[in-house]
DNA sequence: GGTAAACCTGTACCGACGTACCGGATGCAA
DNA sequence: TTGCATCCGGTACGTCGGTACAGGTTTACC
């Protein structure tokens, strides 16, 4: 498959394909005599896996590592496997959930109290937004 | 107060202070004859309000706008007030919460299923991670 | 063999939020 | 008046995940 076919099939930009190649996320494909890239069909699957992993919150660096340890399985000791990574990521996500829950509650309180502007709220000790408590 | 005092009192970097000034988040302070900035004590409060608003998920651009509409209150029509902004932000935060909840559930499913690496999971139709369904 | 579409490399840029470094000027105390 | 900490403006860098452009080749089809 040619690069634009792969990009279209995976729903990514052509530039993104080359970017991933530079980042080591996808293998360097074979080339035509003239230097044009020729991808195997599996490249599309790899790209979809990358996108799925991104949706789960993994960074490209993490995905790159996960793909590496998947390829050569002798990752004893050094590289953490998918299990470990998923556990760590879950902890991150749960922490973010906790943060956002507090934030949502605070915003709801501010809305319920009818806060009109930052200046008034900052000086008002009854305001539920954390401006007044912070002011002094 | 001198710039380093304000920065220390608000817990921000000196450079950040100048950055906020460039962004229009804090007023341009008076200067000494030699050009050194001299801040009023309220600058510290403003900085803390900015940090509190950031913790609530507002961008610096949004905070800048909120501070502006707070300062000159004649913001009828054009600029949305704190109420409106808070409602919009709450909707954002709730959307993020929903996303992260799905992500957390997916990660938990993957952990419970004992997924070991991306390659195996991609080819396994029983894997709860959304790689296999996506592969074809 | 001509032509247009696709492709190549390399580099620069986006946005969001700062941080760091430079050479030079200033402030303050002894 | 000297000396040193602090501050000045301007610019460059860093992250993260791409995207865009320039200007030059290659491929594919008629």
UniProtKB/TrEMBL annotation, chains A, B:
Q: What is this protein called?
A: MerR family transcriptional regulator
Q: Does the keyword DNA-binding apply?
A: yes
Q: PROSITE patterns under this entry? A: HTH_MERR_1 (PS00552), HTH_MERR_2 (PS50937)
Q: Determine if Electron transport is one of this entry's keywords.
A: no
Lineage, top-rank taxon, reads Bacteria
Naturally occurring in which organism (per UniProt)? Kribbella soli
Which GO MF terms are attached to this record? DNA binding; DNA-binding transcription factor activity
All copies of the HTH merR-type domain together span 1-69
- SMART domains listed in its UniProt record: HTH_MERR
Q: Which InterPro entries match?
A: DNA-bd_dom_put_sf, MerR-type_HTH_dom, MerR_fam
Listed A to Z, the keywords are: DNA-binding, Repressor, Transcription, Transcription regulation
SUPFAM superfamilies reported for this sequence: Putative DNA-binding domain
């Amino acid at each position: 498959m040619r690069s634009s076919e792969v990009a279209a099939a995976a729903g990514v930009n052509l530039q993104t394909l080359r970017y991933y190649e530079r980042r080591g996320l996808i293998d360097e494909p074979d080339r035509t005599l003239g230097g044009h890239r020729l991808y195997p069909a599996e490249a599309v699957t790899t790209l979809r896996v990358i996108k799925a992993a991104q949706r789960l919150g993994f960074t490209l660096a993490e995905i790159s590592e996960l793909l590496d340890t998947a390829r050569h399985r002798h990752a004893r000791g050094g590289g953490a496997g998918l299990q470990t990574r998923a556990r760590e990521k879950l902890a991150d996500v749960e922490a973010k959930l906790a943060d956002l829950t507090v934030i949502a509650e605070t915003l709801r309180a501010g809305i319920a109290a009818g806060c009109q502007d930052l200046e008034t709220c900052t000086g008002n000790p009854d305001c539920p937004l954390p401006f007044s408590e912070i002011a002094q």
